[in-house]
Structures are given as structure tokens and as C-alpha cells.
Amino acid sequence: MSLFNAISETAGPLWVVVDTNRLASDELKAFLSASKENRAVLPDYVAMERYKPDNLEALRDGFSVLKSYADQVVILKGTGEISGLNPDEHSFPEAMIDKDQTEGFGEFCRLLDRALQGDASLLRQLRERAGWAQAQMSVVLAGASKFDVDLGEFEAFFSTADLAHIRKSGALTGAMHDKFDAAVSAVAHSVFHNAPGPLTYPSRESWPDHFILRNAFCNGVYMLTFIQRGIGARRPEKARNDVIDVLLATYGTYFNGVMSNDDLTNHVHHISRFLLETDGVRMAPDYLQLLDEALGKAAAAAEDPGAPSEGA
Known about the structure:
The protein is mainly alpha-helical and 312 residues long. The chain has a domain at 3-142 and 283-303. The protein has 15 helices and four strands. The protein has helices at 3-11, 26-34, 44-50, 56-62, 79-83, 99-103, 105-116, 120-141, 147-155, 160-169, 174-193, 211-229, 236-252, 263-278, 287-303; strands spanning 15-18, 39-42, 73-75, 258-259. The chain has a four-stranded parallel beta sheet. Strand 1 (15-18), helix 2 and strand 2 form a beta-alpha-beta unit. Helix 7 crosses helix 8 and helix 11 packs across helix 12 (211-229). It is globular and about 65 Å long. The protein starts with a helix and ends in a 9-residue tail after the last helix.
């Protein structure tokens, strides 16, 4: 029995956000094959990253694993639409799911194959869609080049002594955690006030579940990472890539984590999850933590094969 089989039996259905770099991985295949109830969750940016007008083969190859498990793929609504959902009025994360795209994923894969086999009409439509996706990506990432300004505004919430402590120990004291929460709230309020359309504030109890606040929280952890390293600048192209990493980390906190081989994505997600839980936010268990626990039990059983198993 694989570790994925083991945790699927004990933890029940697992819904995991999948990064672009793990779409064709053996890990994803093992995860989906372990239980028909497991789900691969795809935010809009994962598809956007794969969509390239001049290389639709990359999109097909990226879905090579998923098309065999089309019924286990969940497509999320656009990040802009999700950012407008009020958790007082909608049940999260269910409200984040695009039901039409989710139900139509298998058909999409079949149409993609037909297009690449020579269906000119379908190929033209997909290329137009890919061009739109890349344009949307450019719009979203356009503001990522002001990293140094954002970092300076974030650092302003902490004293010089605080910043020195963070760089030296990498940890937050209780008082610093409060300042961190204040900085995150300030960023979230700014996003609310500058949104292109009117947004309704949720209740205090539901505020941590709002996507804008949750993404601001993960972005705060991202900023802390660079304060800890003493880095005050980031190349624009790197900062733009980081936007996607932080968004994936954010989505992972609504589900059973994120499947990625990107160090920054994983770091931001795990630290954010820890700090959110410290603040009292309830979240589904992280699949990596479940795997680690299962691995520990398997190692202990191998060392002492005569020991009774749990429930025996």
C-alpha cells in the first residue's frame, strides 16, 4: 500500500491545489490513483501559465495525467471573481469552484486532442483563448515590479529593533505577530478600497476567510521571507513569478495544501498555514503533513514489526 493510499483511507477525500510544475508528475498520478475521491484543484493561473498560443502541445502534455482522471479535476473560478465573494454569504471553498468548467474538463481535453490532430476551427479557438490568457496574465502581473516599495511599506509596521530581531532569529515575538497582523489588514483594506467594483466587507468572524485578506496574509509571509534574508530588492521578472507563487500558496490554505516543487510556494504556504492556525483559523489538514505522519508510522513499524498496529 502506498502512502497516498494510507492517508486517503484514514483522512478521507483530499483536495489538493496543483502547481504547473507538478501537473505531469508521478506524485499527482499516485495521489489521484490512490482514491477516486481525491481531487486535483486547478486555480485559473495554473491554466494561464500552460496556455501559450504558439505551443498548445505544452498544454496537452501538461494535462497528460489529468485527462486520465478527468472526473477528479476541480477547476476554480477566476481569482478576480473569487476575490469578490463574501464568506458571510457563500460557503468556502465550495463557492470557489467553477462547476461548468469542472464538469467540462474531460470534454476540453478531447477537444484539445482534436485541435492538435488538425481541426483548424478548434485550433483557432484555442489559440484565441491562449492569447486571452496570456493577456490576462500580463495585466495581473503588471503591478509586481514595485517590490521595493511594497517591502518598505510592510517594514514600516516594525521597529528597527524588530527588523533586526527578525533577521537574526527568523521568528516573530507575540508583539511582532500583532504588528504582522496589522500590516496584513492594512494591505487587505487598501485592496478593498481600490477594487474596481464595490466589495462588501464580511463580518469580523468571517474576515480571515475572505480571499483578499488570506492573500494579503500570504503576501505578508512572502515579505517576511525577504526581511529574514536581508534582501531589499527583487528583479521585476522574479517579482512577477512570485505573485503566482503567493497566489498558489493562498489557494492551498483553503484546501489540503498545494502540490508544488517550488521552494517559495511551499515556504509561504506552510508558514502562512502555521500563522493562520496560531490566529485561530480552522483549516483542513495539509496532505504533506499527513504524508509525513504516515511515513513516520511506516518507519516505526519497520523498526519494530512485532509492535501492535493502531486499533489492534
